[in-house]
Amino acid sequence: MRQFKVLGMPVHIHENYRDWLAQRLRDNQGAHVVTLNAEMTMQARKNPALAKVIQEAELVVPDGSGIVLYLRSQGEKIERCPGIELSEQIVQIAAEQKWRIFLIGGAPNVVDHVADIWQQKWMDIVIAGLHHGYFDEAIEQQICEDIRSTQPQLVLVGLGVPRQELWIQKNRYLNPNAVWIGVGGSFDIWSGTKTRAPEWFSKNNLEWLYRLYQEPWRWKRMLSLPHFVWCVTIESLFKTR
Q1: Degrees, nearest 5: CA angle 145-34-106
Q2: Distance (Å, whole) CA 173 – CA 205
Q3: From the CB of residue 120, how many other CB atoms can be counted at a distance below 10 Å?
Q4: Which of 82, 110, 126, 195 is the 20 to 30 Å CA partner of 210?
Q5: β-strand 126-131 against 154-158: which pairing, if any?
Q6: More confident: 137 or 202
Q7: What's the pLDDT tens digit per position in 42-66?
Q8: Which stretches of the chain are DSSP H helices?
Q9: CA distance 241 to 236
């Protein structure tokens, strides 16, 4: 698998991320999957702990349109790999193979609803455990014990960036052979609490605009997008000199 750097953060280039991850699961090989976008990249430039996690992850996929557009400007023929779609594809494979799945994150009752929906969709799915993303230290210890005892092959963690990436790094030792994926707010989408951007927005790299429309309080975080464009432009200019 080839690797490309975007502002110091790795992006792995592969023609089929789903099959690569499915093979890791079949071979009982662990992996930490990071779904990289411009906002996370800019956070990592200010947060050395987050940067370290991304740099050490076995798989970093180009989730954000900003990442994809930059890679294309550098001659890489690559398509966006939305983390929510990749995660759901892996869940389907896990369900078909009856591999154990553990879900962590989202608001109370949201993750339970996701489990109910998936159990109706895939009759053979094995939900080894689940818990919402609001927990104290005592409950966290119980979650970790549940992961240790059930040994799930797939762990989906939706605690937001950078908390989910740091949490995965901290707790991977509980089951190093599992595939761990940071899924952000995907539980809200899977449960129907929120909706994804219409296809037109996605095709025109405007999914961030639809997200801002849904969550206007995110406007300060969205300022990282023009900052990202500025930084990669400067980096590209220095590369061409």
Answers
A1: 55
A2: 37
A3: 9
A4: 110
A5: unpaired
A6: 137
A7: 999 999 999 999 999 999 999 998 9
A8: 17-26, 38-46, 48-56, 65-73, 83-97, 110-121, 137-150, 163-171, 186-191, 199-203, 207-214, 219-222, 224-240
A9: 9
Q: Is the pLDDT of residue 115 over 80?
A: yes
Q: How far apart are CA 213 and CA 210, in angstroms?
A: 5
Q: Which two tokens stand for residue 144?
A: 């970790």
Residue 126, Cβ density class (10 Å: 0-12 exposed, 13-18 middle, ≥19 buried):
middle
Signed CA dihedral, 9, 203, 208, 35: sign only: negative
**Identity of the residue numbered 4:** F
Kindly report whether the peptide bond that precedes residue 82 is cis, defined as omega within 30 degrees of 0. Answer: no
Q: Taking the CB of residue 237, how many other CB atoms lie within 10 A of it? A: 9
Q: Which residue has the tokens 């206007």?
A: 216
Taking only the tens place, the pLDDT of each residue in 208-241 is 656 665 666 564 665 677 778 788 888 776 665 4
Question: Of 127-131, 140-144, 227-231, which range is least confident?
Answer: 227-231
Contact (Cβ atoms closer than 8 angstroms) between residue 2 and residue 17: no
Non-local CB neighbours of 96 within 8 Å, separated by 6+ positions? 122, 124
Check whether 206 has a pLDDT greater than 90. Answer: no
> Cβ(152)–Cβ(102) under 8 Å?
yes
Question: If we measure between CA atoms, which residue out of 208, 233, 240 comes closest to residue 6?
Answer: 233
> What is the distance of C-alpha 28 from the center of its chain?
20
The residues that bridge with 60 in the sheet, in sequence order, are: 34
